[in-house]
Every structure is written in structure tokens, then in C-alpha cells.
Amino acid sequence: KFLSDYFVYLLLTFLRSILKRIEEKWLHELYGREYEKYCAKVNRVLSWKNKAK
Fold first, then answer.
1. How many helices and strands, by DSSP H and E, does the chain display?
2. How far apart are the C-alpha atoms of 27 and 17, rounded to whole Å?
3. Which range marks the domain in which residue 31 is found?
4. pLDDT (tens digit, 9 = 90+) per residue, 10-53?
5. Is 35 exposed, middle or buried (0-12, 13-18, 19+ CB in 10 A)?
6. pTM for the full model?
7. How many CB atoms lie within 10 A of CB 39?
8. Rounded to an integer, what distance in angstroms lies between the CA atom of residue 43 and that of residue 21?
9. How far apart, in whole angstroms, are the C-alpha atoms of residue 30 and residue 47?
10. Is 50:43 a contact under the CB 8 Å cutoff?
């Protein structure tokens, strides 16, 4: 049971990272420079926390 739970967790983490990269590429193509400015202000992992200045 433990190994199967661990495997599912690893699989979901892996898939999430792939989807995040695909989404970021799409957003960059869609919004360009505006999206770059947004990324500079927002933490990539914890989006509700601003980056330290």
C-alpha cells in the first residue's frame, strides 16, 4: 500500500511539472512581454506570495 501511494504521489508531481511548463509556454506565446513582467513579480510555486524585492 505504501509504495503504491508513493508512486501515485510521484506520478502526479511529475505530471504537474510537465503541465506547468506547457501552460507557461502557452501563456508566454499568448501574452509575451506582459507575461514576463507578471512572472517577475509572482513566485512560481507559491503564486499567492510575492517575490522578495
1. 2, 0
2. 15
3. 1-52
4. 999 999 999 999 999 999 999 999 999 998 888 877 766 666 55
5. middle
6. 0.68
7. 14
8. 15
9. 20
10. yes
